[in-house]
Amino acid sequence: MAEYKVLIVEDSPTMRQLISFALKRLRGIQICEANDGVDGLKKLSVEKFDLIFTDINMPIMDGLKLVSLVRNDASYKEIPIVVITTEGAQEDRERALALGANDYITKPIQPNRILDVAKTLLKIA
Amino acid sequence: MATEDDKGLHSKAEEFLQAFKKGAEFTSELMRENERLRYRVLQLEESSRATEGRSEASEESRRLEARIAELEREKEEILGRIQEVEEENQDFATRYVEIEQENNNLANLYIASYQLHSTLDFREVLQIITEIIINLIGAEEFAIMLLDEKTNELQAVATEGIDREDVPSAKIGQGVIGGVAKSGESHFVEDVESYVSDLSSPMVCIPLQIKEHVIGVLVIYKLLQQKSKFDPVDYELFTLLAGHAATAIFSSRLYSDSERKLSTIQGFLDLLTR
Q: For residue A24, which of B19, B40, B65, B244 sits 20 to 30 Å off, Cα-Cα?
């Protein structure tokens, strides 16, 4: 069975648990969590991931900076990235997509939306 | 004499000849009749065989018709069964969607409950309540107000989307917020979309209570842009918050107090034993 590794970069434990809970419904998913962008980059340097979910507003290093760094690093630039925003934060969302994010999800989080996005980007039938 | 005898013989011969001719004609006639009858018998036999054939064909036809009728009945039964199965499938599909939704709702409630009781730090508890309201309910502007037992006033201790100083304090029993704190009954505006923000009269006001004892309220003034109404799970979350958030706040406060007192006592003990 194919094994997919997903990195969730989010400062809110509630959100991390919510995304993780939704993703665990997919078979063969392994989840790794990071508290902020810097923590996310550390995890990326030691493990290979197939998908990244990242919040935009985070302390230390925000999601936009993380998207930019990942897209400009030859080792990670192919990894699909999904940003988590609020519906009102349209500017952030557009900026994230312009920086190379593949998709976005808005709060309040819908587990089905997380699943749909993950299935599409991981190419799971 | 001889002539008379000859004549007599000749007459008898003539008679015999006549009789023989008649006999020959009769025999000939009999043979023709025989031939005609044989032909007739053949015709009748053929006719009889044809009639028998028709009868057998008719029997086979009746048997096939009965089989067709039986197959038609079976076909109708199968079509009826297919329709029943299709209806059952439709029911299962609907039920699957409902269960999926229920599963999501339960996951949200579980996560909310798990997170609320994951810490004994008062500030962290407030932060978790804030996250639940933003991420699970989808509110943009809201406040957590706690009751000051000395002044009997509710005051905002955490806010999102508005300044804490802007949220007016409320006396128990006064206004919408004070009324909720007194009665312990939640307040929801009837039409979320036509609600006009008023800090004294929120869209939603939920009492935070441990059994009958109200320790504060949650007030919501504005929902996220994409949220136009409350879903059934939101009311479940409100109910959960009303109880679990109150317990989590109460426990963390008690823990902070006991930690502070313990630290003070430890300080005194250190002084005494020095």
A: B244
Please report, for chain A, the start and end positions of each structural domain, with discontinuous segments joined by +.
4-122
A108 with B111: Cβ contact below 8 A: no
Angle CA A118–A22–A115, to nearest 5: 30
* Domain positions in chain B: 1-116, 120-263
- CA–CA min distance A26, chain B (Å): 14
Whether residue B140 lies within 8 A of chain A, CB to CB, comes out as yes
What's domain B120-263's architecture?
A: 2-Layer Sandwich (3.30)
**Cα separation of A86 and A92, whole Å?**
9
Classify the complex by whether its ipTM is higher than 0.85, answering yes or no.
no
Q: Does B220 touch chain A (CB under 8 A)?
A: no
- Structure tokens that stand for A65 in this block: 């900076």
Chain B residues inside the 8 Å CB shell of A107: 134-135, 138, 224
Residue A80: predicted pLDDT: 95
Q: Indicate the CATH number of A4-122 among 3.30.1050.10, 3.40.50.2300, 3.40.190.10, 3.40.980.10.
A: 3.40.50.2300
| pLDDT averaged over 10-residue windows placed end to end, chain B, 274 residues | 73 86 89 91 89 82 92 95 94 89 82 87 92 87 93 93 92 92 90 87 93 92 84 83 89 88 87 81
Could you list the pLDDT tens digit for every one of the 125 residues in chain A? 558 999 999 998 888 988 998 898 888 899 999 999 999 999 999 999 999 999 988 888 888 999 999 999 988 889 999 999 876 677 888 888 999 999 999 888 888 889 999 999 998 87
Residue B205: beta bridge partners? B187, B219
CA distance B108 to chain A (A): 7
Compute the Cα dihedral for B211, A108, A13, A36 and give only its sign.
negative
Contact A18 B136 (CB under 8 A): yes
Pairwise CA distance, residues B194 & B35, whole Å: 114
The chain A residues in contact with chain B (CB within 8 A) are 12-15, 17-18, 21-22, 86-88, 106-112
